[in-house]
Amino acid sequence: MDNRIMRKNSLELPKLIAHRGYAVEAPQNSIPAFVEAGKLGFWAVETDVHKTKDGVLVCNHNNSVDEMYYGSGKIAEMTYRELATLRIKTEKDDVAYSREELMIPTFREYLEICRAYGALPFIETKTDDVEEVINLACEFFPEKDVIISNTGYTGAGGFELYFYPEVAMKIWDAIFEAGQEFGIKPIGLGARDTLRLEMGFCLYGNDITDETSPLEAGLGWITKFVEGKNFTNRAALEKQKAEGVSRKLVGFEMIDRGIPRHGYALLNEAGEPIGQVTSGTMSPMRKIGIGMGYVKTEYSKPGTEIYLDNRGRKLKAQVVKPPFRK
After folding, report:
1. How far is it, in rounded angstroms, from Cα 43 to Cα 6?
2. What is the pLDDT of residue 145?
3. What is the dihedral of CA 116, 124, 190, 223, to 10 degrees?
4. Which segments of the chain have a pLDDT < 70?
5. Which of 90, 123, 100, 108 is nearest to 21 (CA)?
6. Rounded Cα distance, 117 and 105, in Å
7. How far is CA 97 from the centre of its chain?
């Protein structure tokens, strides 16, 4: 075992994260795995948080219990009492663990373990009730601490940090001191924007706004029309889904030399307007102009040639399926 695991936390020493607990001897995302990570002195213990049908926050990697438990079903559709009857699958003889240790851990139990061993909770919320998750975490860790998120908005491996303004310079200096040997450098919003665009990720205010719909933007997979669950503009979206959309958000790359910019018109071969650019840049990876924009549905199929109105110049482009960075 790497003896760095046993070191105490400090700015000078490695910050090791136990993914789903220390799941070498114990089953992952289990109470024994969380406890083992705490005993070994990990800086943080990672888990995913879900909410049961009756409102209990629990820890599990997947939305369902099929893979990790002797049972089946989606967590959001099961009560905690139903979940508590299931046991975690283990590679070893089950007698090595008590019945309680093989039950799905509640988020509260996980936080108690983190606090007891001085490990930071490193969580990914898989429930819409993010505020409830944060509030419960703050009950156990009331200090003005840092929230670490791994939403991956840019499409690259990385993290987002949330902290109070008074500790900003301390954290900034600590990060760059720790990364000095690797030559890390600060970058701005321009770099972030090219990263997310190369992955085809939407930017609110550009590609999605309060005047666009998730169905037009290709986000129907996160628009769930669950029976009995109402949400803003549901009726209009159901109508749009039934009738079909008149425009779609597409990715495109330039065939002619040029850089698409937000607001530029998109044209058909006859020069007739068919849509508008919502995001565009020169791709640092591809070395060509790339962009996203809304076009009439009949022009949305990958491979379709469209044109960019670049200050009166008609430049050829082609509809492609993101990500642009292969």
Report:
1. 10
2. 67
3. -160
4. 1-15, 91-95, 142-145, 152
5. 123
6. 17
7. 33
| Helix boundaries (H) for the chain | 31-39, 80-83, 107-117, 130-140, 168-178, 189-198, 234-243
* Cα–Cα distance, 115 to 100 (Å, whole number): 20
Q: Look at residues 241, 260, 258, 238 and name the one whose alpha carbon lies nearest to residue 250.
A: 260
Token pair for residue 252?
A: 């495109």
Q: Which runs of E-coded beta strand occur in 52-169?
A: 57-59, 120-125, 147-149, 160-162
Entry pTM = 0.58
> What token pair was written down for 75?
């967590």
- Is the separation of the CB atoms in 107 and 96 below 8 Å? no
User: What is the residue-wise DSSP string for 213-263?
Assistant: -TTTTT-GGG----TT---TTHHHHHHHHHH--SEEEEEEEESSS----TT
Element (H, E) at 22: none
pLDDT for 158: 75
CA neighbor of 47 nearest in space, from 119, 97, 100, 98? 119
Q: Residue 323: is the preceding peptide bond cis (ω within 30°)?
A: yes
Torsion, CA 263, CA 266, CA 271, CA 272, rounded to 10:
-90
Three-state SS for 198-221 is HCCCCCECCCECCCCCCCCCCCHH
Token pair, residue 18, equals 């136990």
Q: Report yes or no: 49 and 126 within 8 Å, Cβ to Cβ.
A: yes
Q: How far apart are the C-alpha atoms of 113 and 121, rounded to whole Å?
A: 9
The alpha-carbon radius of gyration of the chain (Å, integer) is 24
Give the pLDDT confidence of 57-82 residue by residue, as tens digits. Answer: 999 988 999 888 888 999 999 999 99
